[in-house]
Each structure stands twice: as structure tokens, then as C-alpha cells.
UniProtKB/TrEMBL annotation:
This is Kazal-type serine peptidase inhibitor domain 3. The keyword Disulfide bond applies. GO terms for cellular component: extracellular space. CDD domains: KAZAL_FS. Residues 50-131 form the IGFBP N-terminal domain. It is found in: Secreted. Residues 104-169 form the Kazal-like domain. Residues 1-20 form the signal peptide. Keywords: Disulfide bond, Immunoglobulin domain, Secreted, Signal.
Length: 334
């Protein structure tokens, strides 16, 4: 076979390969960057940064670590000290300091599912959790919910001392009742969560009346239980088959031997068939459903809430003209 007969098929094969594997260009890459970009060099740098390459430990070269409220932990190479992570911060599981860091003294790294729907897929967020969860009373009069919180505060105030148990305190309303608007004949529920030590007694009253609810009213009931946190009490006021007469201001009061505190919410009852959503949505920024019920909740203020004679005005814009309509009033009931 002649040399030319061998060379020609090779040339044709080369052309075919060029057609099969074209030379791609990236339109979104800077011309200057394309000229200077070294793929292999940059890849090596990324691998080096992500790798756990540790040299010989020389403690005398370690930087001095200050201001660590959760104590000191070893770095990823186990040589120098660095600040431990605080309670609630993300952390690395186990005893290896790889990405997020190691929890400080008296804490452990625990998995906390971000969303139950993703639990089977292994999507979790590990956070530092204090091992000791007993509350303490500080000499500054503040309650620290666990030992780790106290240590953080003691770092800033070295003379701070504590005793077992929370400080005696006036009740604190952690979750106040919300203003409600619903239609006549429906059921409504107010929630009130109170924290106190000693534990608080929670009462419900309606402004303008001296009776502690439920009184002898068969369509009003009050239920309470401990929690959701320690030294907290949750109380619900339920009104079934509401009427216009139930409109008004309802007050949750928490009381113990130290003092008392209260929070109020307004209930507005609309006539049957009133299209609440379509009417007030443009003017009320927060209008949402209670889970699994038809109760609406509205953030204060609605439009105008008078302290004694309660008049709630819900105003909205009509497509043709503007108008204000009093949907309900309790002036005649107070």
C-alpha cells in the first residue's frame, strides 16, 4: 500500500473527529478571564482548601484566643485552641472540627430536622444544645434557662452568681390573645400563654363585666394545661355559637404572689353571610386561618379600638367608590 493511501484515511478520520467533538465556547465568560484561567491550577487550590491538610503542631505559633463565651475547643488539626460554638449555633457532629465548628463546654451537637417532610431524605440541621436544661436565678435578678446561658452572661459579668430554680418574677405573657373577627353562629378561641415563677393563675374576663369567665354561661368554656415550656401555662377561652352580644374586649390575666399582668384582644362578630375576606383583605395586612378551623386572626390595630365603648370600623375600597361601614359595635352592650 502506498504511503498516500494510508495518510488520506487518517486525514478524513481527523476531520470526522473534529465534526463529532466541536470546540465549545462559553459566551458568559470574560475574554480576559478566558485567556488567564487555568483549570487545573484552580482545581488544585479548591481541593487544598477543602482538604484537612495539617502540618506539624507548633503550639508556640498558635494565635491567642480571647472573648470565648462558650470556652475553648481544638481546631480542625487538633493543635491550636479556638472559640467553641454557642448554644443554638450550627455544629459538626462528633469530635471533628470540619466545617461549622465544635460546641463549647457543657454542650452537645444534636440533629434537628429542618422539616419533617424531608426527614427521610436526611436533611437535618445540627445545633449546639446545652446538656443541663434546669433554669437558674442570677444575682442580677434574671432567670437563665440553663447553665450555658448563665456561663455566657457570667463571661461578661464575672461576679455573677446563681441559685437553683428561676427567679421569682411577675408573670410574663409569652403569647397574648389575638384580635378575632368572625360571623355570627361560629365558634372562636382565644389563646394565652403565661410564664411565671411561682406558677401563675390565669383568668379570663370581658371588659365591662366583673364575672370571671366562664361563669354560668353554657356557651363559654375555659381550658388550661401546663407548657409548652417549663413554668408556663397555656389557657384557652372558647365561645361557641357566637352572637352580636359576644362582641367586645376579652382580657387574659396572669397572677401570682409577686404580681399580675394582663393582655387584651377584641372580638368582632359580623352578621351571617358577610363576605369578610373580600371586604377587608385590602386594608388588613394580616388575615389568616387558624389551622383546621374557620377562625380569622387580625393583627392590631384593626382600625380603631376604644378602651371602654368598643367600636370597630372595618374600611375598604369599593371598585366604584370609597365608603366606610361600621360592621359591628358594642357601644350598646357596655
Amino acid at each position: 500500500m502506498l504511503p498516500g493511501e494510508i495518510i488520506l484515511p487518517l486525514l478524513l478520520l481527523g476531520v470526522g473527529l473534529c465534526q463529532s467533538f466541536p470546540h465549545y465556547t462559553y459566551d458568559d465568560m470574560d475574554d480576559d478571564l478566558a485567556m488567564t484561567f487555568d483549570y487545573y491550577k484552580d482545581t488544585d487550590e479548591v481541593d487544598y482548601r477543602n482538604g484537612s491538610v495539617c502540618e506539624e503542631c507548633m503550639p508556640e505559633l498558635c494565635h491567642e484566643t480571647r472573648g470565648c463565651r462558650a470556652g475553648l475547643v481544638r481546631d480542625s488539626c487538633g493543635c491550636c485552641f479556638e472559640c467553641g460554638n454557642l448554644e443554638g449555633q450550627s455544629c459538626d457532629l462528633g469530635d471533628k472540627n470540619v466545617h461549622y465548628g465544635i460546641c463549647g463546654e457543657g454542650m452537645e451537637c444534636k440533629l434537628d430536622p429542618i422539616n419533617g417532610a424531608y426527614e427521610d431524605e436526611g436533611v437535618h440541621d445540627a445545633q449546639c444544645v446545652c446538656v443541663t436544661q434546669e433554669p437558674m436565678c442570677g444575682s442580677d435578678g434574671r432567670t437563665y434557662m440553663n447553665l450555658c446561658k448563665y456561663k455566657e452572661a457570667a463571661f461578661e459579668s464575672p461576679g455573677l452568681n446563681v441559685s437553683d430554680g428561676p427567679c421569682k418574677t411577675v408573670p410574663i405573657i409569652k403569647v397574648p390573645p389575638r384580635d378575632l373577627v368572625n360571623v355570627s353562629g361560629s365558634s372562636v378561641v382565644f389563646l394565652c400563654e403565661v410564664f411565671a415563677f411561682p406558677m401563675a393563675l390565669v383568668e379570663w374576663r370581658k371588659d365591662g363585666k366583673d364575672v370571671i369567665l366562664p361563669g354560668d354561661d353554657p356557651h363559654i368554656s375555659v381550658q388550661s394545661r401546663g407548657g409548652p415550656q417549663k413554668y408556663e401555662l397555656s389557657s384557652w377561652l372558647q365561645i361557641e355559637e357566637t352572637t352580636r352580644a359576644d362582641s367586645g374586649t376579652y382580657r387574659c390575666t396572669g397572677r401570682n404572689e409577686v404580681g399580675d399582668v394582663s393582655a387584651a384582644a377584641v372580638l368582632g362578630i359580623l352578621p351571617p353571610g358577610n363576605k369578610l375576606c373580600n371586604s377587608v383583605t385590602p386594608y388588613l395586612k394580616v388575615l389568616r386561618f387558624f389551622t383546621g378551623s374557620e377562625h380569622f386572626t387580625i393583627n392590631r390595630p384593626i382600625e380603631r379600638i376604644r378602651k371602654n365603648a368598643v367600636t370597630l370600623m372595618l374600611r375598604w375600597q369599593n371598585h366604584k367608590n370609597r365608603q366606610s361601614s361600621p360592621l359591628f359595635s358594642e357601644a350598646e352592650n357596655t
